[in-house]
Amino acid sequence: MVRAVLFRAVGPTHDVEDLVQDVFIGFFRNVGTLRDLSSLRPFLVGIALRTARSALRKKRVRRWLHLSNDGQVPEVAAEDGDPRTREALRRLYSILDELPDRERLAFVLRHAEGHELTEAAEALGVSLATVKRMLQRADAHVQQRAREDDLLCEWSAGREDHE
Fold first, then answer.
1. Residues of the chain falling short of pLDDT 70
2. Where are the domains positioned within the chain?
3. CA nearest 135: which of 162, 159, 106, 158?
4. What secondary structure letter does DSSP report for 110?
5. Rounded to 5 degrees, what angle do the CA atoms 6, 51, 53 make?
6. For 144, which of 22, 38, 49, 137 is 20 to 30 Å away at the CA?
7. CB neighbour class for 66 (10 Å; exposed up to 12, middle 13-18, buried from 19)
8. What values do phi and psi take at 46, rounded to 5?
9. pTM of the complete model beyond 0.70
10. Treating both helix axes as pointing N-terminal to C-terminal, what angle do 40-64 and 117-124 enclose, rounded to 10 degrees?
11. Which CATH superfamily is domain 2-162 in?
12. Angstrom distance (rounded) from CA 68 to CA 58
């Protein structure tokens, strides 16, 4: 679950395994604040989101400075599967990179992780009204940019036909 949240939040260009380790380090540092064992999942999701947010900030700073961890421009990891799907995914993450971190995380929680609005609000530590506004802005941005992209436009049109 933690790996999936991180992967969907930060995209394929990050070393998700290192971020998973960071989440569990954060978990063990803060486990004493967990009052109710039934809250373990939202507790871990919250730590994962804070870790993802930190990684996204670092990514923006490296991009702004034209650096990566090793000073080189990182390449998207090659994955097995359809090249058009990989390219669509790369383009989607490029659009997500344009969003403010909290809007991106709200988008990921709602659309990639399938969280209810109340769950997304709780995980992000904001009100239901705030998460709705964040999602409205993120959805509008992603939809607009997807319409401008030939490949994503095809993909989103295909999804609308099936819904």
1. 13-14, 60-81, 155-163
2. 2-162
3. 106
4. I
5. 90
6. 49
7. exposed
8. -60, -45
9. no
10. 70
11. PhyR, sigma-like (SL) domain (1.20.140.160)
12. 9
